[in-house]
Design brief:
111 residues; alpha/beta; Glutaredoxin; five-stranded mixed beta sheet; 4 helices; 5 strands; 32% helix; globular
């Protein structure tokens, strides 16, 4: 796991996602998923560029299927931005960086 990215589990979900004071972008992924591997560098880049405005977490849906089921994650990669414990933006698939940024930036404070 890269620095700045929180490894999420079913046990840490409520504290790390629902109880977090700042927005958190959650990457629902699996190790066998090719598109998940393709967007991993984008997710890492966002973690660095938006540090202080949002956190980034990754949840392996094979090891921790509960949160994925709870938020109707039917395809991976799925990225969901949570703010104040609620999902506010969702992007499905290995999308281009601009599409993901357009989805999340309206929900972030600051610039």
């Amino acid at each position: 796991m890269s620095p700045g990215i929180v490894e999420l589990t079913a046990a840490t979900w409520d504290r790390e996602v629902l109880g977090r004071g700042e927005p958190i972008l959650v990457d629902f992924w699996a190790p066998w998923c090719g598109p998940c591997k393709r967007i991993a560098p984008l997710v890492e880049d966002l973690a660095g560029r938006y540090a202080g405005r949002m956190s980034v977490g990754k949840l392996d849906i094979d090891e921790h299927p509960g949160p994925a089921a709870r938020y109707d994650v039917l395809s991976i990669p799925t990225l969901i931005l949570f703010r104040d414990g609620a999902p506010v933006a969702r992007v499905v698939g290995a999308v281009k960086p601009a599409k993901l940024e357009r989805a999340i930036t309206p929900h972030l404070g600051g610039d």
